[in-house]
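Recap from last week: sequence in, structure out.
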Amino acid sequence: MSNSDLISRVRAREILNFLGNPTVEAEVSLSDGSCGRAAVPAGISVGSSEVGQLLDGDQKRFAGKGVLKAVRNVQEVIGPALKGMSASRQEMIDNKLLELDGTSNKSRLGGNAILAVSLATAHAAAANKKLPLYRYLGGEGPFALPVPAFDMLEGGAHAQNSVDFQEYLVIPAGVSSFREALEAGVAIFHALLNLLQKKGGSIQPTGPLAAPLKSNQEGVEAIASAIETAGYRLGKQCFIGIDAATSELYKDGKYFLRCEKRELTSSEMDNLWSEWIDTYPIISIEDPMSEEDWDGWQAITRHIGERVQLVGDDLFTTNPEIVKKGIALGVANAVLIKPNQIGTLSETLETIRIASEAGWAAMLSTRSGETEDATITDLSVLSGCGQIKTGPPRAKSVVKHNRLLRIEEELGGEAKYKGVQAFRKLSPESG
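Predicted structure tokens:
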């Protein structure tokens, strides 16, 4: 047995994410000189059960958002404990990280410290084997290029004075390759940009657009119009997705839609989604009900779960145990995958496996505070995945898109574009 993959050094540093906030980057070096590096993103809309970042809280540095404590934990606690361990034993490494932390939510060492090391270890092990990460993790496959879900228009917690629902997405599931899907995303984004400029929309240089729309439904209309203006067939080549992020709207058993000055019961929210999917080619709704409203989730899954993908994000927070609960209770039919919600690669892969075995879809997702780390793109081509949610094809998201273009080229004919097959609940007449 070779000793070339033994961990010789673990170090970390404080870097900046694309929001200009600090985050943790870890490097794992092996005995043969191989090295892996990974950085951890941060979210704005955060589920209550996801693991937290360990922040310094020193208001004199980065308004309290510094991560030097987490960096020190990597250097002084994690590094010495992992030295001499085999980087290819990912589950053993991750179990050691959990043992070192000793809390249920990774709060002692910090989810940001733990995940950075967990992912960097996998990258180092892949480098040791001279394999790309997806090949190291997925072996001979099968692999598939994921369908991108482009967040084009923002509201909710992501955009002030706009619509209530957090993201309106373009999903080019009906084209024939990832490259074509990316081309569609670019064309539709520019069509939407022109449309929203006429409505007085704000132009953000790094992400999705925002505009002072009069209703939540006007957001769907804008996406539909942009798809057709760009020359794509609505409901055939390109579809619509919604991230409602309704946990942000839920209070005292009601959903408050400030944009429209009305409040809805769970049943009325269910009816709203039913009407929307009757009217528009919407194939995915994320968090259509609040993470606190399990009864509402059960009802909507019974009502429209055979017609549309219902994705749990705040509800599941990439947690394998909560996903098991959702499967048992008949809640949702897909799970959003964000490794920094759960804190280790092993737990992330376990969540994907559980979802896949239940016949659910798994959608990898970026976060608002992204980094140049592209680990989730490699995960998105693994068996059991098939979808990836990003911002529009510009600024921070092109790091992920360009990585997928390279993977598409590397795999050649070995991996097909997942297309409409990625949406397991897509009704036949939809596309």
